What we know:
Blueprint: E1 4-7, E2 10-12, E3 18-24, E4 33-38, E5 45-50, E6 56-58, E7 66-71, E8 76-81, E9 90-96, E10 100-101, E11 105-109
Parallel strand pairs: 2-11
Antiparallel strand pairs: 1-3, 3-8, 4-5, 4-9, 5-6, 7-8, 9-10, 9-11
Amino acid sequence: xxxxxxxxxxxxxxxxxxxxxxxxxxxxxxxxxxxxxxxxxxxxxxxxxxxxxxxxxxxxxxxxxxxxxxxxxxxxxxxxxxxxxxxxxxxxxxxxxxxxxxxxxxxxxxx
Length: 111
């Protein structure tokens, strides 16, 4: 069974940056990986995904500010978040394939 462990969340001021990382315990090479987020009272939404070949997809709200990357040797996926806004405040979840989720990491953007 694959386990995903996220790290890198925290409190940051508007305009600041954070980098999230997710480490998978199993082989991730053939699976799409992604980041999703869920704010209180809202549905979980896609932030960004990356295929095993490196093709990426971003939510319109984060295009130009966030960058997703992966390391197929280390079985990790990262999310570099720049120019953060208050509305980016959420719990961020790592996903591998269709059914594997991490436990989530809190990102709070506030002055």
